[in-house]
Amino acid sequence: MEIAPFVPTEAGYRERVGLLKEAQPEEPWSLEGEKQADAVAAAAGRPADACFARVGGEAVGFARAQADPDVPAAGRRRLWVVVARRARRQGVGSALLEAVSRAAAAAGATEWHVSTSLAEPDGRAFALAHGFREVEAEYELHLDLESFEDGARAAPRPIESLASRQRRHPDWFERYYRLHTAVEGSVPWALGYAVPNREDFRRRRVEPAEFLPEGTMIAVVGGEWVGLCEMWRCGDDLATAYQELTGVLPGYRGQGLGTALVAAAAAWAKRRGYRRLLTSTSTSNAAMQRTARRLGFIVAGRWSHLLGPVRRGGAPSGQERHR
Question: Which pTM value belongs to this model?
């Protein structure tokens, strides 16, 4: 077995995405998405340490370690490790983790953050066995848009797409930035949250080709932007849209705005020909779970987020979702 650096060629990205899709076929992996993620991270000064494990020249595993801009802990790094099913329990994951751990430790990293689906139990079991602890969990939710009754719920306040607001409001970006960071900052993330600067936010949340401003919905009350439902393409899956951050400012909750935002986004996605809407929510977010049940979402999976020490020769094999 050989551990080789990831080289960002077309062939390299194809191998990387192929391994990711095999490990987590329900997730929105795509060539363009992975290229965009790398470009945004590099522009923000967060280049990744990444490598392949090869056997007979064939890539059978991939690992990456990278600083996470959403998490304020100074020594924390996001960790991805995927191993082809045919190559598991042969030391591939351990070899990959040894390589990225060495580089991360040399750069001052002290703590890993990994995410793994409970549909893929090997990652969580390995993490727990190596001293990791679960700090947060979330449900993966799916909505069948073919049976969704769009127009069945009238919005209690004006709900408009971000695209329509972009056309009419020269200051749309500043408004969207303030709303998005306020909503995200009001969520009690166990892993922490750091407000991004405006340019990093623009690169990561507005400029990617996967972002759908025409499907992203904004709630407006008295001229103020008070809620949003953010929509993205789901990688190469043309039948699925992804609902990212959704929320309402604290002073405007309990008025049905969250349900109206998600319903408007789902109706838009159905009109555009999408057949499924995918999202996730913390297992402790009772309000979002109620909204999801009202609209017909079903729980399709559960994710575990774990933290553990950076050390040579021992780290978990887990998979992480990407937008």
Answer: 0.83
